[in-house]
Each structure stands twice: as structure tokens, then as C-alpha cells.
Amino acid sequence: MPNLVDRIERYIKRILEQNPEGFIVIQRSELASEFECAPSQINYVLSTRFSNDQGYLVESRRGGGGYLRIIKLELQVQDQLSKTTRQFGSGELSQNASDGMLRRLREEDLLTQREVMLIRAMLDRDTLALPVRERDFLRGRLLAAVLTTLAREDF
User: Fold this and answer.
1) 67-72 β-sheet, strand order
2) pTM of the model as a whole
């Protein structure tokens, strides 16, 4: 049985897909009631599964009438790949950030599941058996190289 975080993520994604405007507005407390969990667990799902790197913008207003607006960002293939390449090619990239980017590229059908699995194996902390800073730097450079290759139109 899927864990609570996975169930909440799937639920939010399902209602996002059903909304033609590309965004939803929900109340954190209602979502927490629906899943019988604490609002902090909803916050965790939003911060780990609905970040900008993963193609979402989450706007939040707290208080009695507070709400969450979750917007699925459109991905312009060339622009996103170029931006990502610049961002990760010159700095450090954590395993979580790379997993998020790969998840987003898969959801946008820019990568096949097999390609995601291959890239993830290449970027895994166990594969890059180096001290953390060096490993994160190398991970960024490797992902930038892969995305640069994918962005090419001549192959």
C-alpha cells in the first residue's frame, strides 16, 4: 500500500489534471482532514513533491480563510533544458534536486522511464562515491551534459 505522502501527491496531481486552467485552489485544513493527517504533513508533500524544480508553483495564504493555490508550470523544452544546464553545470546539485528534475522531465514526457532510470543510476550517491561537495558538483556537471545532449536537435 502506498504511503501517505505518495497518496497525497497522487490526489493533488489527479485533481490538477482534471482542471483545464492548470491550477487548483484548496484549503490545507480540508486536505489534512481528507487524509486524516496533520497540516504539517501537507506542507511536507508540497515542499518535496511540488517544488519549482518539479514544475509547480505553490502559493499559500494562512489564516481562517487560508488557501493553497497549486499551479502546474508549463515546460518549454528548449528553454528549460538550457536553464537547467546553466544552473546545474556550474554548481552543486543534491540527489533530491536531481531526482526532482528527472521526475519532472518524465512527467512532461521529455524522458522515457528507461532514460530516467539510467540517468538516476549514473547520478546516484553510491555511484558517485566521493565526498559530498565533490559528488554534488560532479552530479551537476553530469546532469548538465546529459541535458545538453538531449536538447540537441541533430541526432
Assistant:
1) 23-26, 67-72, 56-61
2) 0.55
